[in-house]
Amino acid sequence: MSSKSEPIIRVRGLVNRFGAQIVHENLDLDVERGEVIGIVGGSGTGKSVLLRTIVGLNRQAAGIIEVFGARTDQLDSDQRLAMEQRWGVLFQDGALFSSMTVAENIQVPLREHYGLPTHLLEEIAALKVAMVGLPSDACRKYPSELSGGMRKRAGLARALALDPEIVFLDEPTAGLDPIGASAFDELIRSLQKSLGLTVFMVTHDLDSLVAICDRIAVLAEKRVILTGTYEDMLAHDHPWVREYFHGPRARAALKTAAE
Amino acid sequence: MGVPSLRQDRTADGLVLRPEGRWTVATVGALDRDVDRIAAHPGTVVVDLDGLEGLDTAGALLLRRAMRRCQPTGDSCRIAGGTEAHLDLLSMVAANDREPLPLVRRNALSDMLERVGRATLEALAEAKIFTGFLGLVVERALRAAMTPWRFRVTALVHQMEQAGLNALPIIGLVSFLIGVVMAYQGAVQLRLFGAEIYTVDLLAVSILRELGVLLTAIIVAGRSGSAFTAEIGAMKFREEIDAMRVLGIDPVDALVLPRMLALILTLPVVTFFANAMALMGGALLCWMTLDIAPEVFVERFSNTNPWHFYTGMIKAPVFAAVIALVGCHAGMQVTGRAESVGRMTTKSVVQSIFLVIVIDAIFSIFFNVLKV
What we know:
The complex is a heterodimer of chains A (259) and B (372). Chain A is 40% helix and 24% strand. Chain A contains 10 helices and 10 strands. Chain A is globular and about 55 Å long. In chain A, α7 (206-212) packs parallel to α10 (248-258). The two termini of chain A are 24 Å apart. Chain A has a 6-stranded mixed beta sheet, with helices on both faces. In chain A, strands 2-1-4-5 form a 4-stranded antiparallel beta sheet, with helices on one face. By secondary structure, chain B is of the alpha/beta class. Chain B folds into 2 domains: 5-95, Transcription Regulator spoIIAA (2-Layer Sandwich), CATH 3.30.750; 154-370, no CATH class. Helix content of chain B is 70%, strand content 8%. In chain B, strands 1, 2, 3, 4 and 5 form a 5-stranded mixed beta sheet that branches. In chain B, α1 (32-36) links the parallel β2 and β3. In chain B, α7 runs parallel beside α11 (307-332). Chain B starts with a strand and ends with a helix. Chain A binds chain B through residues 98, 103, 110, 113-117, 119-120, 122-128, 130-131, 136-137, 139-140, 144, 160, 162-163, 194-196, and chain B through 24-26, 28-29, 32, 56-58, 61-62, 65, 85, 88-89, 92-93, 96-101, 103-104, 337, 339.
């Protein structure tokens, strides 16, 4: 891990509520530069809401969120745009623009922000498609012509279009078969290493947690009750954490990882 | 500093390429031409990365192209200096380097011909499927008529309320205004001949025969036809229709027949209401601008041919069946993609209005032949 300097994402005292329902209360979280952090928690504990709040799709009721050392709620629109170009988001089903081919999807942020010549755009798109492990003919295909796993890869390629420093992944392996899921885990890990990414991953997938996460943060009781490595999770005695990390599926995941 | 540049030094050993500044996606656009001007160099080529301040995949991609321009394989260039991160990035780009697929240039004329051909085939295929659906609905309707106690009365009443009762305010208002407009336009023209009183006949013919029922059908197509498509389409999209099938419920029985019967029952009633409102608007205007008192209007009106009224009312259930059939069919045609619900809804409204007007024209010819 990189040195224990300033965290790349720092959340303090975050409160989120929808009407009378409080989702987060006094939530604290640090994400270090260059790590892969996995966010886990039961259904409805607000994992996705946390992700959406950090990237600014949902405005917090109270609390501080700092990304790259700057408070996200105090940016003017130019600074906000500059910040958004330093992160990439992969939504659950890729959220590719359905009227565009994969290559065009990847080129959207490049075209929007930088005047690059067309053949360079084509080269960049071809490179990103290769990087996420899609065949080159996927460039000319439309999202509807791709399988779920391929759509996720294409979505990841678009998230990586601007060479971001942080990548947010919302349940990247949900809905993939086990082979596809572990291939996707490997892909994230290798891209993270070669591009020096920080990965913020919301997941339910115990195999992903074991395989690629440096640290895990557990959301429960409206806040992050625990962060640490997989071993830390095993040692903790919170009932939900015990049930989650000592359940039959968790043991199976650990066994496969050990083999 | 930070502005990217590419220096070429010719030394005794060969060519040295010195990329300098920040080679990132934000800046490399300007370098594209410089890179393309590099000439091939048969001797040794060294790439000195020490001047590089920043590199991302776009920059690395361009740097590789520069190396390829010097020496076709690109891999024979020697790399000197550079941080570990930069070297990692270069080797990752090298590993994933592929020629982008060539852009397909298309011929506009042949494209247009292809589109026309495809559209024709699609229209034919659609007509076939629609005919099949019509047959299916008729078969199910006949079967349902044999077992009327099994009919879904609650759904029928609900649809009648939605499609009929709730449509009354808007249809009433629109019809009233059209009545006013027709009477006014007719009065202006007929006054030139001193034949103001014929405004009543004009209203009777135009509203009872055509406008009342057409307006009603068009508004109902926009309100209820689109709602049918959207409701059934959303159910199709969420696999609810499939769930009904595996539970042994026929979607035509459960969804299509109640909607269709509801519309067939309510459209004539709503048409009658629309006729009444339009005539009231016309009568009001006649009274105000032509001094035709209401009782005179009513007397004159009651002497007109009652077939004006009958022809309009005969058309109403036919239009209703067309609107319901097109709306439900479009809903059933929704595929697993979210945007297809929206597309089919638009299509159902356009098609049902089109069909209503075509059938209206056919009715006109038919009634003309029958001389009614």
